Amino acid sequence: MTVLCTLTTHPAHPVLHTVRRLLCFTLALLGAICLTAGTAAAAELDDVVATLEQGYAILEDVQASFVQRAAIASLKREEKGWGEMFIKRPRKAAAMFRFDYVKPQKQQIISNGKTLWFFIPDNKQVMVTNLNGLMENSGVSMNYLTGLGHVTRDFSISFAGDGKDSKGNYVLQLTPKKKSRLLARLQLTIKAEAVEGFLREGKAVDPFPVLSSVIRDQSGNRTTMEFSKTRVNKGLSSALFQFQVPPGIDIIKQ
């Protein structure tokens, strides 16, 4: 849902701002998801974009391990974290998501599409907020989260650099057509095999072709996420996206 949290609870980085930055990534990713080297000709930009958009159309759910690196411009330092990501995309309801951080601090960010919970066990408290209200205040369109977003409609798209990374995967640069203080630019690395499959079959063959993402905000902060062990359309239970408050935990409503 590049999860834009600072991975700390430092006073200079309020929890609410942390969650908004996370949501910005999640929404952009949900909106974006809509050639083996030497075996196929390089794809055109439209082919890579179609691999994303058509893949999103067949995405029901995804689970993946992630490694996150957050470069905080004002502090001139980089923070690293990792954990597990879950996204479920019901056809007639808002998308649900869950990020379980293992390092550097255990925390959970969970949404059932209506309510968002931000839980840090060591603090013995959970922040609870209405997702719609949070997104309205952050200025990010809800279209991404509900799965109605299309990258060709919401972003100006080009290849980044020469269009490929060192392994031959395609790299896209996306700039929001509507200015957002939380999202200045998004970069997505798309699997070469997924694009090759699209060219071969004439349709998307991978519902989640994203290998990594880099998101930059207007303040110069940069968050990179790399995905691995990706599993798609396995029938994730909706119960996974419902937070049960443990005994002895304070509830902070926003």
Briefly, what is this?
This protein has 254 residues and is α+β, with helices and mostly antiparallel strands. The chain is 22% helix and 37% strand. A 12-stranded mixed sheet has the order 7-8-9-10-11-1-2-3-4-5-6-12.
Topology:
Blueprint: H1 15-32, H2 45-57, E1 61-72, E2 77-88, E3 96-103, E4 107-111, E5 115-120, E6 125-130, H3 131-138, H4 143-146, H5 151-154, E7 155-164, E8 170-176, E9 185-190, H6 192-201, E10 210-216, E11 222-232, E12 250-253
Parallel strand pairs: 6-12
Antiparallel strand pairs: 1-2, 1-11, 2-3, 3-4, 4-5, 5-6, 7-8, 8-9, 9-10, 10-11
Helix pairs in contact: 2-6
Describe this structure in words.
- With 254 residues, this protein is of the alpha+beta class.
- It has one domain (15-253): Lipoprotein localisation LolA/LolB/LppX (outer membrane lipoprotein receptor (LolB), chain A, Clam), CATH 2.50.20.10.
- The protein is built from 6 helices and 12 strands.
- It has helices at 15-32, 45-57, 131-138, 143-146, 151-154, 192-201; strands at 61-72, 77-88, 96-103, 107-111, 115-120, 125-130, 155-164, 170-176, 185-190, 210-216, 222-232, 250-253.
- The protein has a 12-stranded mixed sheet.
- Helix 2 (45-57) packs across helix 6 (192-201).
- The model is unreliable at 1-14, 34-41 and 139-149 (pLDDT under 50).
